[in-house]
Write a structure and sequence with these properties.
This protein has helices at 3-13, 20-25, 40-53, 63-72, 142-150; strands spanning 33-34, 59-61, 80-82, 88-91, 94-100, 109-114, 118-123, 156-161. The protein is of the alpha/beta class. The protein has a single domain (3-161), classed as 4-Layer Sandwich (Metallo-beta-lactamase, Chain A). The strands form 2 sheets. The chain has a 5-stranded mixed β-sheet, sandwiched between helices. It starts with a helix and ends in a 6-residue tail after the last strand.
Length: 167
């Protein structure tokens, strides 16, 4: 969920763990929350974050994540913004975009975050089939879209993933 924020906050605070204390002390620095999937950790942490930061900070998620999260947290119904595949969103000096991923995680999104010199790509729980459509392989052109999504756009690019063997 807060993968991008954690990566940039970690760089900023030099390996200090991002938790409730940090968020309370630095709530003016938090400009957006990007929810990459609806895993139980993300949903639980979102509840805590919203208590700490309030609901004035924009929340970005996939359509499926919004459906699940608004059923869990009805107060967030009008706070979650659905991000489309080809849409780029500017938050402060950062630009981010998403790519829907087939996954065991509902509403899973690949996340690309770009700053002036750095690109960070986050992929979690990617699988090459889809249970929703009862297909054995990914949708047509998925690999083409994935390669475009992962194309380096800044001087330094980093892939952060839970996928073993992906370099």
């Amino acid at each position: 969920m807060l993968a991008a924020g954690k990566a940039f906050l970690t760089a900023e605070i030099q390996e200090q763990q991002v938790g409730q204390d940090y968020l309370k002390q630095n709530k003016v620095k938090v400009r957006a929350i990007i929810i990459t999937n609806t895993s139980w950790q993300n949903a639980g942490f979102l509840a805590e974050v919203c208590q700490t930061l309030g609901t004035s900070i924009p929340l970005y998620a996939s359509h499926l994540s919004k459906i699940i999260l608004t059923s869990l947290f009805p107060s967030l119904r009008n706070k979650i913004v659905v991000v489309e595949k080809s849409q780029e969103i500017k938050v402060g000096e950062l630009t981010f975009s998403v790519l829907p991923l087939n996954s065991y995680l509902i509403g899973n999104l690949g996340l690309a975050v770009h700053s002036t010199q750095f690109s960070f790509y986050f992929l979690e729980g990617l699988i090459f089939n889809t249970l929703l459509d009862n297909r054995l392989l990914t949708p047509p052109y998925f690999l083409t879209n994935l390669f475009k999504f992962l194309a380096p756009r800044r001087k330094y690019s980093y892939l952060i993933t839970s996928l073993q063997g992906l370099h």
